[in-house]
Amino acid sequence: MPVYDYKCAEHGLFHELATMEDASKPCACPQCGKASARVVMIPPSVLAMAPAKKTSMERNEEAKHQPIISTVDSRAEAADRAAFAAKKQHHHGKGCGCSHEHAPENSALKQQVVYLPDGSKVFPSQRPWMISH
After folding, report:
1. Number of domains comprising the chain
2. Residue 8 is part of which domain span?
3. Mind listing the pLDDT tens digit of every residue in the chain (133 residues)?
4. Whole-angstrom Cα distance, residue 5 to residue 9?
5. How confident is the model over 101-115, as pLDDT tens digits?
6. Which neighbouring-strand residues pair with 6?
7. Does residue 13 sit within a domain?
8. Is the pTM of this model over 0.70?
9. What is the distance between the alpha carbons of residues 63 and 2, in angstroms, rounded to a whole number?
């Protein structure tokens, strides 16, 4: 049998075993015996969530079964997003793991080539503590 949460107006939250058939019925408070309604506990991660993220998750949940309708406005918005992505050249975040280069040209993270006086090339590692083969 599952454990459900109930809340007494005088004594607060308590937990009781109940069958699934009795889940919606009130339960007697163990201290005073008054009928107490079942409550649904909300995880702290939902309560502490950023409002913008919560709004976007709710919007996505509401729209997941709605058909995509092509309108003049939606096509213009899609064109604007495509133009922005083309201008930016990369719309993933840093550290996404794809093959696009994130580092600027003069960054220490970019692979560099060092030419020695005899004309040979050396590719110094960005991790000097590693032994290369």
Report:
1. 1
2. 3-43
3. 788 889 998 898 898 888 888 888 888 999 998 999 888 877 777 778 888 998 888 888 888 787 777 888 888 988 888 887 777 665 556 666 555 554 455 555 555 666 777 877 766 665 656 565 5
4. 13
5. 544 555 555 556 667
6. 14, 38
7. yes
8. no
9. 32
Q: Evaluate whether residue 64 is within a structural domain.
A: no
Does a structural domain hold residue 30? yes
Contact yes or no for 77/85 (Cβ under 8 A): no
Task: Give the span between the Cα atoms of 18 and 20, in whole angstroms.
Answer: 6
Q: What residues contact 4, with CB distance under 8 A and at least 6 apart?
A: 15, 16, 17, 18, 23, 27, 38
Contact 84, 77 (CB under 8 A): no
Residue 84 lies in a domain: no
What's the rounded Cα separation, in Å, for the pair 110 and 21?
Answer: 64
- Tell me the CA distances in angstroms from 39 to 3, 17, 20, one per residue in order: 12, 14, 15
Q: Residue 14 pairs with which residues in a beta bridge?
A: 6
Residue 4's CB is within 10 A of a number of other CB atoms, namely 21
